[in-house]
Amino acid sequence: MPPRLFPTRHDLPAxxxxxxxxxxxxxxxxxxxxxxxTKHAHWNVKGPTFIALxxxxxxxxxxxxxxxxxxxxxATALGGVADGTIRAAAAQSRLxxxxxxxxxxxxxxxxxxxxxxxxxxxxREAIDAADTLGDAATADLFTxxxxxxxxxLWFLESHLQG
Length: 162
What we know:
This protein has 162 residues and is an all-alpha fold. It contains 5 helices and no strands. It has one domain (14-160): Ferritin. Helix 1 (14-44) runs antiparallel to helix 4. Belongs to the Dps family. Its EC number is 1.16.-.-.
């Protein structure tokens, strides 16, 4: 069943909006999942760098909250429904599950870095998809998200380098 569209005066064709809403909701699922995995890391990280990582993961969670909100609101602005429940995210996320027995500081950082890199890659792909569908605003949203995800990845990878 195609996603529901509410009446709107938005000038993009309905079929394009449906595809964009599906693309946005895929990212809502991934962002929601990554947020929960980052918060899990925040709660459970152990080791001599605990406090620095605990605080970093909390900051990353805040950024993901903002990205998720912006992405979900764009889906509704296009006349769609934001599919943002935890159950929907669990069912639809394309990210790998966080390794359940990973607690040591740098192992947690490594696990998160993999997931941030995966989402950054799919976000860059979404920029092109939104452009192809004629929606520069959604492409711009994904461009801004890409910058934030790349910045977060840099923060994480900086712990693993050197």
